[in-house]
């Protein structure tokens, strides 16, 4: 299959493009920044660049390029609209004209987080699946990603272009833009595997599953995150005393953490539920919190990447 991958110099895009080539697909990478997986350097918001990329031939598009959370502090609002919304539209129109059999877009769980959820105002954790509504994204990143999701849905409905949207949770390797005092970067990431993170390898596999199921399902929107060990009826306990809930599921977690000088979260305010993706496109993340604990137990390398020095290629 000939696949156009946008954002091919980025963290997800470069892993995804390499994986596709490994499987024998022909890949064209389109990115603002040069990179080993990128053949066309240009913007998705520039229709001539999109045309140049499609000239290589494309049976499917995986659209991972975009401005995201870290860009909020350094980019004008208009750029978010131009790149995340107009750029997605330019790609959809080109994909329709090329009669592509799949259009997969990387979206974000962040668009489900309104201010109340972010500030953890409730007295229970919020259990988030694809039915969560109303959606009130709290910034231009989420607002433009939500608009782009709508465009993918529209092209599936109106033009029969099979589309899959993946609302992925965190997989970035760098430090959090709002680091938690006292906790190390790896400790923060390990904790997030409980409720709001996945490995970049699992993100790649989710995109592969989306690509191979798009035609069959016509349109789908899924949360992509590591499966949480919790159940919905634990939401109040998670907010009140997350450590007690974690101990129920993983009796040795506290001890394993203590050996590293790590800390478990005291309270958890939200949980992403990826079970619809498993039921519909057969994708389930391999790396979960149990895998993190197993690495601690056996002194194996951690099953996720932490690289505090990572900088998005377009910002270098
Ligand atoms: N990193 C995360 O934790 C995370 C979480 C949820 C969703 N996402 C989404 O995943 C996607 C990939 O993110 P990433 O972590 O690989 O980020 P990244 O910054 O490493 O990669 C994004 C790539 O997109 C490119 N890009 C930006 N604007 C472009 C444009 N106008 N035209 C062409 N290329 C452009 C950048 O140069 C970069 O190489 C993004 O759409 C992001 O919103 C990321």
Automatic annotation (TrEMBL):
<protein>
    <submittedName>
        <fullName>NAD(P)-dependent oxidoreductase</fullName>
    </submittedName>
</protein>
<dbReference type="Pfam" id="PF01370">
    <property type="entry name" value="Epimerase"/>
</dbReference>
<dbReference type="InterPro" id="IPR001509">
    <property type="entry name" value="Epimerase_deHydtase"/>
</dbReference>
<feature type="domain" description="NAD-dependent epimerase/dehydratase">
    <location>
        <begin position="3"/>
        <end position="213"/>
    </location>
</feature>
<dbReference type="InterPro" id="IPR050177">
    <property type="entry name" value="Lipid_A_modif_metabolic_enz"/>
</dbReference>
<dbReference type="InterPro" id="IPR036291">
    <property type="entry name" value="NAD(P)-bd_dom_sf"/>
</dbReference>
